[in-house]
Amino acid sequence: MTWIIGHFLAACIGLSLGLIGGGGSVLALPVLVYVMGIPTKSAIAMTLAIIGTVSLLGIIPHWRAKNIQLKTALIFGSATMLGAFIGAKVALLPFVTETFQMLLFAIMMLFAAVFMIRRSSQKTAPDDQLALYPPPVCKYCWLWLMTEGLGVGILTGLIGVGGGFAIVPALVLLGKVPMKKAIGTSLLIIVFNSIAGFLSYWGHISFNWQLMLSFIVAASAGTIVGAYLAEFVPAHRLQKSFGYFLLAVAALVLFQNRHSFQSSKVSEYTPNLRDQLYISANKNHNTNTI
């Protein structure tokens, strides 16, 4: 039953990617961790493989429509790949706990959900959907583009987030890429990120290859169905509902990691208690000595 539920959710992830063009990939990590019982670090690496493969399939129609700027993808992707490599190496350090990664992931989900809800509430044309972003200082636009690419890549390697919601506006505002081409180009950049992050985890953690491949098949099938349904269902209406769904999932992740807040309170209290016991013991010792 768990296997069926997990793969049904994987298909829903692909369905959302096909319908609204993004956002669904962030659900892969909580599904792998809380439904399939995969350890967090292994789940993050498997998520990168799933995101990369599904994004690679999504590139095909954009490539045929010539909506991919290969040069821009290589320039911006080089920064994101470096960031993904660094992020994955940082994630493997002993002090980076799985709880910290899940909390950071939940925070990023909250940002993505709020952005999706606000964007869906705006009655603007597709090319005007960047009104939520401040106007860039374009004296050094390419420098800012590389800097943001590095930051997005670090998050990709650290918590397995594809970062499409940040890559597309960066390409439009800083790289001067048209919206349609920015969407297609972002998919290629996400593939680069996923490859770099996954290879960084390779050899350091174990993978459930069978589960990963079956999730890729289910998500890919969902993407094909979603792309077909997108011709009949307006994506604008779905974004707000999906944004609220992301809020609920982020709240669930925070609830599942609530013990970290409790343990932090205990750790803050324990030294004080220990000090009091130490002082009391010294007083008794001094009294006995006298």
From TrEMBL:
The chain crosses the membrane at residues 44-61, 73-93, 99-118, 152-175, 182-203, 209-230, 242-259. It is found in: Cell membrane; Membrane. One of its GO terms (cellular component) is plasma membrane. It is a multi-pass membrane protein. Keywords: Cell membrane, Membrane, Transmembrane, Transmembrane helix. The keyword Transmembrane helix applies. It comes from the Bacteria. Its main location: membrane. The keyword Lipid metabolism does not apply. Belongs to the 4-toluene sulfonate uptake permease (TSUP) (TC 2.A.102) family. This is Probable membrane transporter protein. It comes from Nostoc piscinale CENA21.
